[in-house]
Amino acid sequence: MNPHATMEKPVTPDNERLPGVPHRAEPSRSLALMDEPKALTPRELEERRVIHRNDSVREQADAFRELRTRLLTLGGERNFVTLVAPVSHGCGGSFVARNLAAAFAFDDTKSSLLIDCDALHPTQHTALHVDAGHGGLIDYLEDSDADLGRILYRTGVPRLRLIPSGRQREMTGEAFSSFRMRAMVDSLRSRYPDRYLVLDSPSVLGSPDARILSELADLVVLVAGYGKVTPDKLEKAIGSFPADKVAGVVFNEIP
């Protein structure tokens, strides 16, 4: 599979309010809340390296739609959490995570939430031109009084929201394994039955964070940069996760 694409508007927080007890809304209500008053044009999406429906990126869009379909087959009838984990830094994991989330949002009956969990190399807010002035994931996890709704940002892509990484940190394992992180993921998934969560992970071989995050995920998609990962490293990365969670490997930037 080759999902590689050759690919301002300010974006504001969504301010979705999440009470202490998760509320599971009807799908129609969820999608009504996913309205995007300033949807990006195809040209703006290509500048952000995000797939769209026009023919100019048809090959890449079809590749991500196929990946989405395979995950939906594995995930069954329920919504689920997918961890997108690059084998090593520079494999294009964030690109794959961003466009997988966009592919879920292609479907008018589904919504998606992209969570940037790479606190050392955060990229999603920059790539999507999101002004993350209200902070992000790390800020929320470190402040017990923080409002989760304030770190949910519109992206300009209908039905796709972003939680940026927030404050940069080198050590995040404790935060990702915390009760607050698990409760946040459970709440975000259970609130809307049509919402699919995509976690953009740090590299598998660079830190233990990817393995810690996999405990929160139902499925794991590994990303191997073409010519950047040896078979031994790929095998080691696959072995880092429970076999029943590994959905497959995306080979990115195939010439």
Query: Rg to the nearest angstrom?
Result: 17 Å
Which architecture does the CATH hierarchy give at level 2? 3-Layer(aba) Sandwich
Binned, the helix content reads 25-40%
The strand order across the widest sheet is: 3-4-2-5-1-6-7
Query: With helices defined by DSSP (H or I, 4 residues minimum), what is the helix count?
Result: 10
Fourth-tier CATH superfamily name: P-loop containing nucleotide triphosphate hydrolases
Structure commentary:
It is a single chain. The chain is an alpha/beta fold and 255 residues long. It has one domain (60-252): Rossmann fold (3-Layer(aba) Sandwich), CATH 3.40.50.300. It is 34% helix and 15% strand. The chain has a 7-stranded mixed β-sheet, with helices on both faces.
What does the secondary structure layout of this molecule look like, with pairings?
Layout: H1 27-33, H2 42-47, H3 58-75, E1 81-86, H4 93-106, E2 111-116, H5 124-127, H6 137-142, E3 153-154, E4 160-163, H7 173-176, H8 179-191, E5 195-200, H9 209-214, E6 219-225, H10 231-238, E7 246-252
Parallel strand pairs: 1-5, 1-6, 2-4, 2-5, 6-7
Antiparallel strand pairs: 3-4
Helix pairs in contact: 3-4
Provide a compact summary of the structure.
By secondary structure, this protein is of the alpha/beta class.
Keywords:
alpha/beta; 7-stranded mixed beta sheet; 34% helix
